[in-house]
Specification:
The protein is of the alpha+beta class. The chain folds into 2 domains: 62 residues; 196 residues, Muramoyl-pentapeptide Carboxypeptidase, domain 2 (2-Layer Sandwich), CATH 3.30.1380. Helix content is 28%, strand content 10%. It has 7 helices and 7 strands, in the order H-H-H-E-H-E-H-E-E-H-E-E-E-H. The strands form 2 sheets. Strands 2, 3, 4, 5 and 6 form a 5-stranded antiparallel sheet that branches. A two-stranded antiparallel sheet has the order 1-7. Strand 3 and strand 4 form a beta hairpin. Helix 2 packs across helix 3 and helix 4 crosses helix 6. The longest helix has 16 residues. The mean pLDDT is 92.
């Protein structure tokens, strides 16, 4: 057997980046950095305490890496749950069928924006898959819900390409870009039954997505409720300050604000084997 490495604060490399991605939901929404930061150390400690149930050290030793690999196998997301509705035969009769994608866009409109404001919420790019940090953040929420009244019922919506935005008869001429690889809408169960109650969904936002993914409780023009802040996961509120309706009976989570360097194509997966990637102990 070769040398067994331990990773700690200050270390750098691809293994560190994988740790940051896979422990996204144990580290207040860790960013997919190449460096073992103070935030990485906190995430490793939290994983050791809550998942492995050992005295936390914040150092990723062999046992910790092996446990991360085990967590990934047990809680991996199914990419088929996140595919664009373009793959759904029930909506194949819409116009311009030739423009449909095969599940995760066509990589159209890179560096193209809906307006002169080149912010990510206006970026028209169809990212090549679902961001892995988003997937592992949702996996952590799934883990932390295990001994509670709440469970994830389904991924109501993952990817939405431009063909679906413009030609889905249920949502004609939609212009949102959040769902082009960066977002998911989730439905939830409470005590085994689907809940649409505002109080339940607000509880889920606060006690799971804010607590474990670091999503802010206000931001981007939202003086109360939930929203978006630079460098953080975001949560669509139940109602916007404008008075328009938001995520009323579901939870919308996205990472559009985590920064351009953290939204490079390398972080998006459209093949199931890419979700876990290589085992850390390998």
């Amino acid at each position: 057997m070769g040398a067994i490495h331990e990773y700690k604060r200050g270390d750098k490399g691809k293994v560190i980046q994988e740790i940051n991605i896979k422990l996204t939901g144990f580290g207040k929404g860790l960013l997919p950095l190449l460096e073992f930061t103070k935030e990485t150390e906190k995430a490793v400690s939290m994983f050791q305490k809550d998942y492995i149930k050992i005295e936390p050290t914040g150092i990723a030793n062999y046992k910790t890496l092996k446990s991360i690999d085990e967590f990934c196998k047990k809680y991996k997301q199914k990419l088929s749950d996140y595919e664009c509705p373009c793959t759904n035969s029930s909506i194949t009769e819409r116009p311009n069928k030739d423009k449909r994608c095969t599940g995760f866009g066509k990589k159209q409109f890179k560096e193209k924006y809906k307006s002169a404001s080149k912010t990510e919420k206006n970026h028209k790019y169809e990212y090549p898959g679902i961001h892995r940090s988003l997937l592992w953040g949702i996996s952590a929420v799934q883990f932390y819900m295990e001994d509670t009244d709440y469970k994830i019922k389904s991924i109501y919506r993952g990817y939405r390409c431009w063909a679906d935005n413009l030609h889905n008869p249920n949502h004609t001429n939609r212009t949102s870009t959040n769902h082009m690889g960066k977002a998911a809408d989730l439905h939830f169960l409470k005590n085994g039954k689907r809940t649409k109650e505002v109080t339940d969904l607000e509880y889920i936002r606060e006690h799971f997505f804010s607590k474990y993914l670091g999503a802010p409780k206000s931001g981007a023009g939202q003086t109360h409720g939930f929203g978006w802040k630079k460098g953080k996961f975001g949560l669509e509120p139940k109602k916007f300050n404008s008075g328009s309706s938001g995520a009323t009976t579901w939870v919308h989570v996205d990472l559009r604000e985590i920064g351009k360097i953290n939204l490079e194509d390398q972080f998006f997966s459209k093949e199931q084997n890419e979700v876990i990637g290589k085992n850390l102990i390998d």
